[in-house]
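Box 3.1 A note on notation
Throughout this textbook, protein chains are presented in two layers. The first layer is the amino acid sequence; the second is a token string describing backbone geometry. Keep the layers aligned when reading.
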Amino acid sequence: QGRPLGICGAIAAQTKGKVYIESYSEPAVVEAINGVRGLLPYTMRLIPIQDMTTVMTVVPKKKPVKKNEWVRMTRGHYKGDLALVVAVRESGLKCVVQCVPRLDLAALG
């Protein structure tokens, strides 16, 4: 309708069938979802802040590395560089990698 909705943000979390809308007032949320199919205002509830922070946290998916896989270093001097996994030790918690050397283009030119 050409005017601000009065909501701060909206997210559809991993919980199926739920949409979280952040706003400072309940009437702003009702007006924002008015006319949107599948969103019913009578199922609306105020969520405590403690529960809302758990909705917004993203759990990174860590997959175990295997021998002969390419990985990207995330810490230390080689952060951001590519490496080849040479061996995996202690049930996948530690591995031996062979780093690909970086080319310093500024020093070459």
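The two ends are 57 Å apart (CA to CA). Residues 81 and 105 are 15 Å apart (CA to CA).
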